[in-house]
């Protein structure tokens, strides 16, 4: 099988591929391909594959299983990993390093909207992010927004639609109102209107945000937004950018799980934060908050009313508890017979 092939080490092949594609891909994409192929090269080294000539479809299958089962890659991440590997093997075939057609043995997984269920902020990660903001960016717009998103599980549109007057420091609550005539709506319209209780910590941050750092800007309708920029109400897009910015591990922990040089990473500038593989939008805060409340034995009807979401939707899209964990929690409420 290897008579007409020329020996090539996986690490050398990786570098040749990146050099070949550098003139046609952006530097950010090259870095992304480099990271994905690094995982493959490391697997080859661990598995004793030092010559790409010997690579087979069965080897590709074992690599795929390892990344999915042992490394826990989500479907979307697996699809990106295998797509890059397929392009790499196609290149390797063109330089007589692997058997022609080996790339065709890679079948990309199909991703659906359901795959987004894998993306959530865990309680540990949320606490790391919020502790970082508490220490270094206390009572800023970013701090106040992410404290509220994590503590309440609000949709980002509901959060950005809040006014200063919707916050009651004495009652420690937020009032959610549907205001389509003045530019802010709730997903479930009038039925989504409700009061949401706040913790003392969140209130302390909001009090200081409003009294010290709030810019005092009005929106286009003359309303006083709770989350405001220097010019107007915080937009949903800007809120997403804030989430991307502060969910990068290098920001809140000074470490990179992707083996990148932090100072040289293309996702380091705030404007490129979304390109970090670990960066997440605001919705995983909501998903994580719902899951955390369920894990902490908050009664499901309370979670439903607080987060404005039906139990059916919670079960299908938000609840990340393992079946055994659900069983353990249900058992607490059953009589011991």
Automatic annotation (TrEMBL):
User: DNA-binding: is it a keyword of this entry?
Assistant: yes
* Annotated InterPro entries: CB (IPR044068), DNA_brk_join_enz (IPR011010), Integrase-like_cat_sf (IPR013762), Integrase_catalytic (IPR002104), Integrase_recombinase_N (IPR010998), Integrase_SAM-like_N (IPR004107), Tyrosine_recombinase_XerCD (IPR050090)
**Gene Ontology MF terms:** DNA binding
Q: Which UniProt keywords apply?
A: DNA integration, DNA recombination, DNA-binding
Q: Report the transmembrane regions from the record.
A: none
Q: Which CDD domains match?
A: DNA_BRE_C (cd00397)
Domain (Tyr recombinase) spans 116-334
What is the top-level taxon of the source organism? Answer: Archaea
Q: What is this protein called?
A: XerD/XerC family integrase
């Amino acid at each position: 099988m290897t008579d007409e092939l020329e020996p090539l080490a996986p690490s050398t092949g990786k570098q040749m591929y990146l050099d070949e594609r550098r003139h046609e891909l952006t530097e950010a994409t090259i870095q992304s391909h480099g990271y994905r192929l690094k995982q493959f090269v490391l697997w080859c080294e661990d598995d004793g594959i030092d010559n790409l000539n010997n690579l087979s479809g069965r080897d590709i299958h074992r690599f795929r299983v390892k990344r999915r089962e042992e490394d826990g890659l989500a479907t979307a991440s697996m699809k990106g990993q295998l797509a890059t590997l397929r392009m790499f093997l196609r290149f390797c075939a063109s330089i007589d390093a692997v058997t022609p057609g080996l790339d065709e043995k890679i079948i990309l997984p199909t991703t659906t909207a359901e795959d987004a269920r894998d993306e959530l902020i865990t309680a540990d990660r949320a606490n790391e992010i919020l502790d970082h903001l508490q220490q270094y960016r206390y009572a800023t717009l970013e701090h106040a927004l992410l404290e509220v998103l994590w503590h309440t599980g609000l949709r980002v549109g509901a959060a950005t639609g809040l006014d200063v007057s919707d916050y009651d420091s004495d009652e420690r609550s937020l009032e959610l109102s549907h205001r389509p005539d003045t530019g802010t709506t709730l997903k479930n319209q009038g039925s989504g209107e409700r009061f949401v209780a706040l913790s003392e910590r969140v209130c302390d941050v909001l009090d200081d945000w409003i009294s010290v750092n709030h810019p005092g800007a009005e929106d286009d309708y003359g309303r006083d937004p709770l989350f405001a920029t220097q010019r107007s109400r915080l937009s949903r897009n800007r809120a997403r950018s804030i989430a991307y910015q502060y969910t990068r591990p290098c920001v809140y922990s000074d470490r990179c799980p992707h083996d990148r040089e932090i100072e040289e990473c293309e996702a380091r500038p705030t404007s490129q934060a979304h390109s970090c593989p670990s960066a997440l939008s605001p919705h995983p805060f909501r998903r994580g908050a719902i899951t955390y409340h369920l894990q902490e034995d908050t009664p499901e009807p309370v979670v439903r009313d607080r987060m404005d979401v039906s139990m059916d939707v919670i079960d299908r899209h938000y609840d990340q508890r393992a079946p055994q964990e659900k069983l353990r929690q249900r058992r607490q409420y059953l009589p011991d017979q």
